[in-house]
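ok posting inputs for the dinuclear copper ion job
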Amino acid sequence: MSRSRARRVALLLAVPILIGLAACAAPQTTFEPASDTTESIDGVYRFIFWLAGVVFVVILGVVLAFSIIFRERPGREAKQFHGNTRLEIVWTLIPVLIVVAIAVPTFKVIVDTTGDPPEGSLIIEATGQQWWFEFEYPEFGFTTANEMHVPVGRSISVNLFSNDVIHSFWAPQLFGKVDMVPGHGNNLFFTPNTARAEPYLGQCVEFCGTSHANMRFRVFVDTQEDFDVWVAAQQAEAATDAAVAAGAEVFATSACIGCHTIQGVSAGVIGPNLSHIGARSTIAAGIMDNNEANLRRWISDPDEAKPGAKMPAFEALLSEQQIGDLAAYLLSLK
Ligand code: CUA
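and the output
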């Protein structure tokens, strides 16, 4: 094999190998479903995959067998013929049956996973914004952002809205992709079946502007007990701590209150609700771990971390000391 040919073969092999590796390593996989909805979608996918595999093997096998059996040999001439009604009916009917076999389970899953959510579902109002997600729990009377908690085994009905442009909402292990459209409500529902400490990852999957790629969210599937604890914590007013009084003062007297809600302190609705931000694992819609260094970085210059972010750079408005106090205060809001 010449060197250039070897390189071409290596390149051709690299593509499927890389795709395969990416699929194995991806935390946002559709191949490990964790809800009734994604399990039924995965079931259809696998059925079609194996059916297509059988068709592939049979067709190639027949082509191979016929080209050997009917090849030209001494004393036997290979020639074309046409016009065999019985054969043509058979090779039309077989694909029709295959398409029907695919259509029946496909339509069943579409009917099962769309339409009205089951009665007694936990309702969550999810709103896409440039570039973060708001989650409101009307049943419990609180609002949070970017991290959604749900109890295992209960049907979850998510109403989807947008405040600006079209976003799309997808956590591949839990539910299929559904758009968030300004002026038009959509809905999706699913029943998570595997509680775990690690969150299920999701993100915006419709190009929505500069920081589309920085618009992520997390879904925590909790046991009922853990979920109740989380709800109670969200409903409670954030404890004020003497050690962070300086930061609380900065928050209450600066521009923060114009955009953000902290229960009992302010009622802004332009940015994410920060009532219990200290209890979230990430900030800035899932792009940075929630710790003091990242909070300082974010408050100082949001645009540096998330290009196009609407929050102004507070390094021009507050001292380094004030930004540090603010970060400590926010972290204390568990
Ligand atoms: Cu929101 Cu892409």
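notes: Residues 122-235 form a domain with the Immunoglobulin-like fold (CATH 2.60.40.420). The mean pLDDT is 91.
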